[in-house]
């Protein structure tokens, strides 16, 4: 498990020194696997024994110089296999595989990674085999398709003519064949197809609003007796779907369901939306706290703060209760207006400055803070910085992020070391270049790669220079060097730096 913490720059091996059987037993992140793959691919190690963790490193730049046979066996090794995790690839990896092998593709579609099938052309599938093609394609993750390629509608049209589908009502059998393609279907298909489609939709990562409405229509059509069970499972994906819950049922439902949703780390955005939808505003102003004083016991209830609107929440919540139960309150309160109430009370509890121990408990509440609130926060410790920067609690605006990091750095002894870089992640782009220049090559070498997509060209240039000098002691191969350096470069900078061979290999979207 520790292997995934190894910095990229320590992963440079040459094919002569690499012990693939050791590498193969460890768990790698994809950016690590891409660096490792260079050396692994060119050994004679049996590709069928490579782990998904290693195989996910396939890249067009790593397989240069390999025979077509070897490339083919690396692709075959990445097919979906029973009892083994799926090998997850990005679109550029999949189109690269396709382009390399397109001249000699077999009709045994299950030999290929299912996601690669998304890119097969009409001429790669014999008409007599189209059904088995679509059956294998049904296991693919359609969300890897970028919309520019417009593959979704093309695939659907081909499937329609292959399976003889006319109209939008899909039979049970066709739904079974199409599998995950259900996730790309419009509402008209969903509401008029066999209810089996709901089972298929459970596997989708995301839904549009009209897909959700169509599912509700189908659920309530009475065609499916088990709708409540499926509904609950769907809720994980497409909150909120709360319209047929009575007020009393809602509370019971939330009690059992909210803790489950929190455990599943459902996005805050969705929890906020669910809470808004399920809550009803029913109190008059000026009546004082009528719902009930909020105590330690109230807060411990899994459905808390259900039943309060933001006015009642304000009136019923005392400052000392916030001060003494901050951890439990911020864990459960997702609504923006409620969160603002919490900040106001916290400011009342601490008139001059709020200590690190409390600041690090704020979670997503921190994201509704204004600069004026943040001025009062103590951010002197790395654990406070890391807690505030946790991306699970939502994104930061640049000004607020800069203020927090600057506060931390203003404490004597604190600097932008590796732990800080790992904690800050892409929020690094909120800092100006003079602050960025204080990062040492050592810190950047030992830190995880930073996502600099939101940095300006000037910021990227500064980070690139530090990254470059951190690698000067390493005799990396050009491809490995490229993998280490490319996260810090935009496409243009990359090409300016005469790395154009690699840019054209990795950055363009083929097809
Ligand atoms: C095509 O692939 C098959 C294996 O699927 C291989 O045996 C054959 O040699 C390849 N043909 C060419 C022309 O590369
Ligand atoms: C999910 O769908 C919504 C609305 O279509 C979109 O805004 C959002 O980016 C999607 N999320 C993912 C992870 O695809
Ligand atoms: C709620 O708390 C206030 C003081 O904070 C108190 O005056 C009031 O009696 C309490 N109400 C109930 C119902 O306990
Ligand atoms: C906040 O930090 C300052 C300076 O480090 C310190 O003097 C002050 O006591 C801290 N405040 C609290 C509430 O811990
Ligand atoms: C960069 O940011 C730091 C911290 O906020 C600030 O002290 C410094 O003046 C800024 N430098 C420039 C050139 O804006
Ligand atoms: C990167 O570092 C090498 C030496 O380590 C140096 O020769 C080269 O000029 C640097 N490139 C840039 C663009 O700074």
From TrEMBL:
Record field: transmembrane: none
Name recorded for this polypeptide: Si:ch211-188p14.4
Signal peptide (residue range): 1-20
GO terms of biological process kind: cell-matrix adhesion
UniProt subcellular location: Membrane
Chief location category: membrane
Matches recorded under InterPro entries: Mesothelin, Stereocilin-rel
GO cellular component, one term: membrane
Family, similarity comment: Belongs to the mesothelin family.
Keywords: Cell adhesion, Glycoprotein, Membrane, Signal
Organism: Myripristis murdjan (pinecone soldierfish)
Taxonomic superkingdom: Eukaryota
